Amino acid sequence: MTAMAGDSPQYEEVLRALYAGNKDHFYGLIDDWTPDIRDYIKTLAKGAFIQEES
Description:
Layout: H1 2-5, H2 11-20, H3 23-30, H4 35-45
């Protein structure tokens, strides 16, 4: 993500949302990014937001 989007708006906040597991905030922050980069990052990040079943 750094190589593709490190200069994108709110990049550091996007990383914080990713590490915190905050899916809605993460997706909201990257909505305005270039579609090809945004969509690829969404694909890569999918596994980070899978919640464990109780």
